Amino acid sequence: MGEVSELTGLAPHVLRNWEKTYSQLKPKKNSAGNRAYKDEEVQLIFKIKDLLEEKKFTSEGVKKVLSGENEAVVVNKSVSSDIKKDLTEMKVFLNQLLEKL
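Predicted structure:
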Protein backbone atom coordinates (compact mmCIF):
# COMPACT_ATOMS: atom_id res chain seq x y z
CA MET A 1 0.00 0.00 0.00
CA GLY A 2 2.89 2.35 0.73
CA GLU A 3 4.18 2.17 -2.83
CA VAL A 4 0.75 2.84 -4.32
CA SER A 5 0.23 5.65 -1.84
CA GLU A 6 3.48 7.31 -2.93
CA LEU A 7 2.81 6.67 -6.62
CA THR A 8 -0.67 8.20 -6.54
CA GLY A 9 -0.03 10.90 -3.97
CA LEU A 10 -2.89 9.62 -1.84
CA ALA A 11 -2.72 8.81 1.86
CA PRO A 12 -3.22 5.15 2.82
CA HIS A 13 -6.45 5.98 4.68
CA VAL A 14 -7.86 7.45 1.45
CA LEU A 15 -7.05 4.27 -0.45
CA ARG A 16 -8.69 2.16 2.26
CA ASN A 17 -11.75 4.41 2.15
CA TRP A 18 -11.97 4.11 -1.63
CA GLU A 19 -11.88 0.31 -1.32
CA LYS A 20 -15.04 0.58 0.79
CA THR A 21 -16.66 3.20 -1.44
CA TYR A 22 -15.93 1.81 -4.92
CA SER A 23 -16.70 -1.89 -5.34
CA GLN A 24 -14.45 -2.14 -8.42
CA LEU A 25 -11.37 -1.47 -6.27
CA LYS A 26 -10.60 -4.77 -4.52
CA PRO A 27 -6.86 -5.43 -4.10
CA LYS A 28 -5.93 -8.93 -2.95
CA LYS A 29 -4.33 -9.34 0.45
CA ASN A 30 -1.39 -11.66 1.02
CA SER A 31 -1.04 -13.99 4.00
CA ALA A 32 0.37 -11.12 6.09
CA GLY A 33 -2.69 -8.99 5.28
CA ASN A 34 -0.79 -6.57 3.01
CA ARG A 35 -2.61 -5.32 -0.06
CA ALA A 36 -1.21 -6.31 -3.44
CA TYR A 37 -2.47 -3.94 -6.15
CA LYS A 38 -2.55 -5.03 -9.78
CA ASP A 39 -1.70 -2.57 -12.56
CA GLU A 40 -5.40 -2.33 -13.47
CA GLU A 41 -6.25 -1.34 -9.91
CA VAL A 42 -3.57 1.36 -9.87
CA GLN A 43 -4.98 2.72 -13.13
CA LEU A 44 -8.45 2.66 -11.57
CA ILE A 45 -7.13 4.68 -8.62
CA PHE A 46 -5.75 7.30 -11.03
CA LYS A 47 -9.10 7.38 -12.85
CA ILE A 48 -11.02 7.88 -9.59
CA LYS A 49 -8.57 10.57 -8.51
CA ASP A 50 -8.98 12.38 -11.83
CA LEU A 51 -12.76 12.23 -11.67
CA LEU A 52 -12.84 13.53 -8.11
CA GLU A 53 -10.07 16.13 -8.17
CA GLU A 54 -9.87 17.36 -11.76
CA LYS A 55 -13.37 16.82 -13.11
CA LYS A 56 -15.05 17.58 -9.74
CA PHE A 57 -17.34 14.55 -9.71
CA THR A 58 -19.10 13.50 -6.53
CA SER A 59 -18.58 9.99 -5.15
CA GLU A 60 -21.97 9.01 -6.53
CA GLY A 61 -20.99 10.39 -9.94
CA VAL A 62 -17.77 8.38 -9.88
CA LYS A 63 -19.73 5.24 -9.01
CA LYS A 64 -21.98 5.82 -12.03
CA VAL A 65 -19.02 6.39 -14.32
CA LEU A 66 -17.27 3.26 -13.05
CA SER A 67 -20.44 1.23 -13.60
CA GLY A 68 -20.64 2.59 -17.16
CA GLU A 69 -23.79 4.66 -16.69
CA ASN A 70 -22.33 8.12 -17.34
CA GLU A 71 -19.62 7.84 -19.99
CA ALA A 72 -21.14 10.76 -21.92
CA VAL A 73 -21.08 12.91 -18.80
CA VAL A 74 -17.32 12.38 -18.47
CA VAL A 75 -16.78 13.64 -22.00
CA ASN A 76 -19.13 16.58 -21.51
CA LYS A 77 -17.54 17.60 -18.20
CA SER A 78 -14.08 17.32 -19.73
CA VAL A 79 -15.05 19.51 -22.68
CA SER A 80 -16.79 21.94 -20.36
CA SER A 81 -13.66 22.15 -18.22
CA ASP A 82 -11.48 22.78 -21.29
CA ILE A 83 -13.83 25.48 -22.55
CA LYS A 84 -13.89 27.16 -19.14
CA LYS A 85 -10.09 27.22 -19.07
CA ASP A 86 -9.94 28.68 -22.59
CA LEU A 87 -12.49 31.36 -21.74
CA THR A 88 -10.58 32.33 -18.61
CA GLU A 89 -7.37 32.69 -20.60
CA MET A 90 -9.21 34.75 -23.23
CA LYS A 91 -10.65 37.03 -20.53
CA VAL A 92 -7.17 37.69 -19.11
CA PHE A 93 -5.84 38.43 -22.59
CA LEU A 94 -8.70 40.81 -23.39
CA ASN A 95 -8.29 42.63 -20.07
CA GLN A 96 -4.58 43.10 -20.75
CA LEU A 97 -5.40 44.37 -24.23
CA LEU A 98 -7.97 46.79 -22.84
CA GLU A 99 -5.40 48.18 -20.38
CA LYS A 100 -3.03 48.93 -23.26
CA LEU A 101 -5.68 50.92 -25.13
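Summary: Helices lie at 2-8, 12-21, 39-54, 59-66, 71-100.
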